[in-house]
Design goal:
single chain; mainly alpha
């Protein structure tokens, strides 16, 4: 095998491995989101609603601007799902104490119950996976932390 064909073969093996990794990620994410999706469907809600509920639950009193930054979306993209959650009585928006121009978000009691059901199903999946491969848990957390830390650092060159 020539050096060029060896390199091509090695590159193809890497691409095949990475493609298999992508498939695992896609299938894993489908499994990870399937139960919450089933719970949200009868309420005519989607994953974006779950993400909003999740972040508001972790930081009651969260400002809309902070939520926008955490979700990495525009005000326009947040407007409709946030309004739907408010209309359904799951999220409560009030004026922040420190600044009347700031809208502060919190979950209602029913919002807390729904968020707990949605997120606990995902925590259970993670717990089950980690139990099957405890030696992989730290590595998985490290990779997720690296990917989450700076999404711009991982964009392909233009």
């Amino acid at each position: 095998m020539t050096t060029n064909s060896f390199l091509r073969h090695t590159i193809m093996d890497q691409a095949d491995t990475l493609n298999a990794d992508l498939e695992s990620l896609f299938y894993g994410y489908r499994t990870f989101t399937s139960l919450p999706d089933e719970m949200l469907a009868p309420l005519q809600l989607a994953r974006v609603h779950h993400r909003i509920l999740y972040f508001v639950a972790r930081d009651q009193g969260l400002s809309v601007n902070t939520l926008l930054a955490r979700l990495g979306i525009s005000k326009q993209a947040l407007n409709r799902p946030l309004r739907e959650l408010q209309t359904k009585g799951l999220v409560i928006a009030s004026t922040a104490r420190h600044d009347a121009r700031v809208k502060s978000l919190a979950l209602s009691e029913s919002g807390q119950v729904l968020e707990e059901q949605l997120s606990s199903s995902q925590r259970d999946l993670l717990q089950q996976a980690f139990a099957q491969s405890p030696e992989s848990e730290a590595g998985w957390r490290k990779i997720m932390s690296i990917l989450a830390s700076n999404q711009r650092a991982f964009r392909p060159p233009a």
